[in-house]
What does this fold into?
Amino acid sequence: MTTPPPLLSVEDLVVEYATPHGPHRAVDQVGFRLDRGGTLAVVGESGSGKSTIARALVRLLKPASGRILLDGTDIAALPERRLRPLRRRIQMVFQDPYGSLDPHLTAQQTVAEPLRAAGVSDKRERDRRAAELLDRVGLPTSALARRPGEFSGGQRQRIGIARALASSPDLLVCDEATSALDVSVQAQVLALLRELQADTGVAYLVIAHNLGIVRELSDEVVVLRSGRVVESGATADVLAAPREPYTRALRRAALDPTAIHGRKPRAALAVTASEVMASHVTTSEASA
It folds into this structure.
């Protein structure tokens, strides 16, 4: 049986930034693939190159070399004229739900804007579809006329997800989409992403530094360090038995209650603390 081609294939990707001392290579010969309807996580500490990859995939940055194949079409070097029709197929949910929304637009206007760009000329139709999308991400009708400053962080991120879904993309790139949210709100947004994927078949590329988030959402994982892939594979396998010391350090950080962002409910602290203790016991037994 022939294996179907991937939705996304990244090959030997190199991204560089200009500096006063010459080019800095932020992403160095990175490769991975993502199947339709799947979820791939790219993880690493700050400065590892993961957000640079996200921006290259949606062509906010142009790679120095390598290929980004979307259904077989290399979008890495396409001129904007030829890239524009493909942009709707890859959308991005940004890390900062506070800064990624226009403060002057209502929630309905924010989500309707991509529909205008996609050629939906009738305003009533754009408003109707925007209202449906906001309902799909769990926001009430009363939210339609409100502006970003009137929403919580989690609600703003839901608006960002609805906006990204407006063009019916094949792939959502989620760049640390929950890291600015409190723990309980993170869980709600992760549940929403899983539900939307089940309903629509959209694929996710998840940028994260916390393996706890990765464990909840992804099928496959790529671990980055200093712009290079140090480990990759099925998420369950990599997290259960990481081969690289760097990945093991990330795993320990994911089990550390002090690494949790935002308010830390006692229940979450109790669970993570018990996991840390179990991890320490396992390590001690293995070394005995």
In short: The CA atoms of residues 266 and 287 lie 32 Å apart. Residues 266-287 form the longest helix (22 residues). Strands lie at 8-19, 22-34, 39-43, 65-70, 73-74, 90-93, 171-175, 203-208, 220-225, 228-234. DSSP finds ten helices and ten strands in the chain.
